[in-house]
Amino acid sequence: MKCKYFNAALAGLILSVSCAVNIAQAGLIAFNDRATFENYLNGESIDTLSSIKNTGFTGIFSSNDFKASGKMHQCNTNVDCGGAYDNMDNKYLLAYNNTLDFSFNSPIAAFGFDFNSYSTKIYNEAVVVALNGVSSQPTGASGGFFGIASDDGSTFSTVNFVSNLKNTVFDNITYAASVKTVPVPTPSTLAIFALAMIGLAARKFKR
Protein backbone atom coordinates (compact mmCIF):
# COMPACT_ATOMS: atom_id res chain seq x y z
CA MET A 1 0.00 0.00 0.00
CA LYS A 2 2.83 2.38 0.93
CA CYS A 3 4.49 1.64 -2.39
CA LYS A 4 1.27 2.46 -4.22
CA TYR A 5 0.99 5.85 -2.54
CA PHE A 6 4.69 6.50 -3.06
CA ASN A 7 4.39 5.81 -6.81
CA ALA A 8 1.45 8.20 -7.05
CA ALA A 9 3.34 10.90 -5.18
CA LEU A 10 6.42 10.34 -7.34
CA ALA A 11 4.36 10.61 -10.54
CA GLY A 12 2.78 13.83 -9.33
CA LEU A 13 6.15 15.30 -8.42
CA ILE A 14 7.66 14.43 -11.79
CA LEU A 15 4.67 15.97 -13.57
CA SER A 16 4.99 19.15 -11.51
CA VAL A 17 8.68 19.43 -12.30
CA SER A 18 8.02 18.81 -15.98
CA CYS A 19 5.51 21.67 -16.05
CA ALA A 20 7.97 23.95 -14.28
CA VAL A 21 10.67 23.14 -16.81
CA ASN A 22 8.32 24.02 -19.67
CA ILE A 23 7.62 27.36 -18.06
CA ALA A 24 11.33 28.03 -17.61
CA GLN A 25 12.00 27.15 -21.24
CA ALA A 26 9.11 29.22 -22.60
CA GLY A 27 11.32 32.33 -22.63
CA LEU A 28 8.56 34.90 -22.04
CA ILE A 29 7.21 36.67 -18.96
CA ALA A 30 3.67 38.08 -18.89
CA PHE A 31 2.87 41.53 -17.46
CA ASN A 32 -0.64 42.79 -16.67
CA ASP A 33 0.59 46.07 -15.20
CA ARG A 34 2.22 48.80 -17.30
CA ALA A 35 4.44 50.23 -14.54
CA THR A 36 5.93 46.82 -13.73
CA PHE A 37 6.43 46.11 -17.42
CA GLU A 38 8.22 49.40 -18.12
CA ASN A 39 10.42 48.96 -15.06
CA TYR A 40 11.64 45.66 -16.52
CA LEU A 41 12.78 47.29 -19.77
CA ASN A 42 16.07 48.95 -20.59
CA GLY A 43 14.31 51.97 -22.02
CA GLU A 44 11.23 51.75 -24.20
CA SER A 45 9.52 53.24 -27.24
CA ILE A 46 5.80 54.06 -27.06
CA ASP A 47 3.77 54.58 -30.21
CA THR A 48 0.57 56.47 -29.28
CA LEU A 49 -0.73 55.92 -32.83
CA SER A 50 -0.85 59.68 -33.34
CA SER A 51 -0.02 59.09 -37.01
CA ILE A 52 -3.60 57.90 -37.62
CA LYS A 53 -5.19 60.60 -39.76
CA ASN A 54 -8.17 58.98 -41.41
CA THR A 55 -10.84 56.65 -40.11
CA GLY A 56 -11.51 53.44 -42.02
CA PHE A 57 -10.73 49.78 -42.53
CA THR A 58 -7.25 48.73 -43.54
CA GLY A 59 -5.25 45.55 -43.93
CA ILE A 60 -1.91 47.10 -42.98
CA PHE A 61 -0.93 49.79 -40.50
CA SER A 62 2.67 50.97 -40.75
CA SER A 63 4.65 52.84 -38.12
CA ASN A 64 8.30 53.86 -37.98
CA ASP A 65 9.46 50.62 -36.36
CA PHE A 66 6.75 48.08 -37.09
CA LYS A 67 3.90 47.00 -39.32
CA ALA A 68 0.57 45.53 -38.19
CA SER A 69 -1.32 43.31 -40.61
CA GLY A 70 -4.84 41.91 -40.48
CA LYS A 71 -8.35 43.29 -40.77
CA MET A 72 -8.44 46.39 -38.58
CA HIS A 73 -10.08 49.78 -38.28
CA GLN A 74 -8.09 52.99 -37.83
CA CYS A 75 -9.94 55.10 -35.27
CA ASN A 76 -9.27 58.83 -35.43
CA THR A 77 -11.90 60.35 -33.09
CA ASN A 78 -13.90 59.25 -30.09
CA VAL A 79 -17.05 58.90 -32.21
CA ASP A 80 -15.38 56.17 -34.28
CA CYS A 81 -15.06 52.54 -33.30
CA GLY A 82 -17.59 52.66 -30.48
CA GLY A 83 -16.54 55.96 -28.91
CA ALA A 84 -14.13 56.72 -26.09
CA TYR A 85 -12.42 54.10 -23.95
CA ASP A 86 -11.28 54.70 -20.39
CA ASN A 87 -7.64 53.66 -20.87
CA MET A 88 -6.76 55.24 -24.24
CA ASP A 89 -7.00 58.49 -26.15
CA ASN A 90 -9.03 59.19 -29.28
CA LYS A 91 -6.59 57.54 -31.72
CA TYR A 92 -6.35 53.77 -31.59
CA LEU A 93 -6.64 50.61 -33.67
CA LEU A 94 -9.55 48.17 -33.62
CA ALA A 95 -8.91 44.53 -34.53
CA TYR A 96 -12.06 43.63 -36.46
CA ASN A 97 -11.38 39.91 -36.31
CA ASN A 98 -9.71 38.07 -33.46
CA THR A 99 -6.12 38.23 -34.66
CA LEU A 100 -3.38 40.54 -35.97
CA ASP A 101 0.32 40.13 -36.69
CA PHE A 102 3.03 42.66 -35.88
CA SER A 103 6.42 42.60 -37.60
CA PHE A 104 9.31 44.79 -36.45
CA ASN A 105 12.14 46.23 -38.51
CA SER A 106 14.63 45.32 -35.77
CA PRO A 107 14.49 42.59 -33.10
CA ILE A 108 12.79 43.45 -29.82
CA ALA A 109 12.80 41.84 -26.37
CA ALA A 110 9.46 43.17 -25.11
CA PHE A 111 6.06 44.19 -26.47
CA GLY A 112 2.84 45.42 -24.87
CA PHE A 113 -0.15 47.75 -25.18
CA ASP A 114 -3.25 49.15 -23.51
CA PHE A 115 -6.35 47.31 -24.65
CA ASN A 116 -10.13 47.18 -24.36
CA SER A 117 -13.07 45.90 -26.40
CA TYR A 118 -16.29 47.29 -27.80
CA SER A 119 -18.07 44.14 -26.60
CA THR A 120 -16.61 44.64 -23.13
CA LYS A 121 -17.79 48.23 -22.94
CA ILE A 122 -21.29 47.60 -24.31
CA TYR A 123 -22.06 44.06 -23.13
CA ASN A 124 -19.65 43.75 -20.20
CA GLU A 125 -17.98 40.68 -21.72
CA ALA A 126 -14.52 40.01 -20.29
CA VAL A 127 -11.75 40.32 -22.86
CA VAL A 128 -8.62 38.17 -22.83
CA VAL A 129 -5.77 38.76 -25.26
CA ALA A 130 -2.73 36.65 -26.06
CA LEU A 131 0.66 37.66 -27.44
CA ASN A 132 2.78 34.90 -28.97
CA GLY A 133 0.69 32.34 -27.14
CA VAL A 134 0.91 33.99 -23.69
CA SER A 135 -2.49 35.09 -22.31
CA SER A 136 -3.52 38.12 -20.28
CA GLN A 137 -5.80 38.21 -17.29
CA PRO A 138 -9.51 38.79 -18.09
CA THR A 139 -10.27 42.51 -18.26
CA GLY A 140 -13.55 44.40 -17.77
CA ALA A 141 -14.95 47.66 -19.12
CA SER A 142 -12.16 49.81 -17.68
CA GLY A 143 -9.68 48.07 -19.97
CA GLY A 144 -6.21 46.87 -19.15
CA PHE A 145 -2.59 46.54 -20.12
CA PHE A 146 -0.80 43.44 -21.32
CA GLY A 147 2.80 42.86 -22.31
CA ILE A 148 5.33 40.11 -22.84
CA ALA A 149 9.09 40.24 -22.38
CA SER A 150 12.02 37.92 -22.77
CA ASP A 151 13.17 36.31 -19.53
CA ASP A 152 16.73 35.70 -20.73
CA GLY A 153 17.57 38.61 -23.03
CA SER A 154 16.62 36.82 -26.25
CA THR A 155 14.77 38.77 -28.95
CA PHE A 156 11.97 38.33 -31.49
CA SER A 157 10.81 40.25 -34.55
CA THR A 158 7.17 39.17 -34.86
CA VAL A 159 4.23 39.22 -32.46
CA ASN A 160 0.97 37.37 -33.00
CA PHE A 161 -2.03 38.99 -31.30
CA VAL A 162 -5.19 36.99 -30.57
CA SER A 163 -8.31 38.07 -28.67
CA ASN A 164 -11.28 36.07 -27.43
CA LEU A 165 -13.55 38.87 -28.70
CA LYS A 166 -13.93 40.68 -31.99
CA ASN A 167 -13.57 44.47 -32.03
CA THR A 168 -10.73 44.57 -29.52
CA VAL A 169 -9.08 48.00 -29.46
CA PHE A 170 -5.52 48.88 -28.48
CA ASP A 171 -3.27 51.90 -28.09
CA ASN A 172 0.09 53.02 -26.69
CA ILE A 173 2.08 50.20 -28.26
CA THR A 174 5.21 49.79 -26.15
CA TYR A 175 8.36 47.89 -27.06
CA ALA A 176 12.05 47.68 -26.19
CA ALA A 177 15.17 46.22 -27.72
CA SER A 178 16.47 44.86 -24.41
CA VAL A 179 15.32 44.03 -20.88
CA LYS A 180 16.75 43.77 -17.39
CA THR A 181 17.18 40.02 -17.27
CA VAL A 182 16.11 38.09 -14.20
CA PRO A 183 17.51 34.60 -13.49
CA VAL A 184 14.96 31.88 -14.18
CA PRO A 185 15.30 28.36 -12.69
CA THR A 186 17.01 26.10 -15.21
CA PRO A 187 15.95 22.51 -15.90
CA SER A 188 19.09 21.22 -14.14
CA THR A 189 18.27 23.21 -10.99
CA LEU A 190 14.73 21.90 -11.03
CA ALA A 191 15.96 18.35 -11.55
CA ILE A 192 18.23 18.56 -8.49
CA PHE A 193 15.31 19.91 -6.46
CA ALA A 194 13.11 17.07 -7.68
CA LEU A 195 15.67 14.43 -6.75
CA ALA A 196 15.98 15.90 -3.27
CA MET A 197 12.23 15.85 -2.80
CA ILE A 198 12.02 12.28 -4.08
CA GLY A 199 14.71 11.25 -1.58
CA LEU A 200 12.81 12.83 1.28
CA ALA A 201 9.59 11.18 0.20
CA ALA A 202 11.32 7.78 -0.05
CA ARG A 203 12.67 8.07 3.51
CA LYS A 204 9.23 8.94 4.79
CA PHE A 205 7.56 5.96 3.13
CA LYS A 206 10.23 3.52 4.37
CA ARG A 207 9.37 4.30 7.98
TrEMBL record:
The keyword Protein transport does not apply. The keyword Calcium does not apply. Residues 183-204 form the Ice-binding protein C-terminal domain. Pfam families: PEP-CTERM (PF07589). InterPro entries: Ice-binding_C. Keywords: Signal. PROSITE patterns: PROKAR_LIPOPROTEIN. Residues 1-26 form the signal peptide. This is PEP-CTERM sorting domain-containing protein.
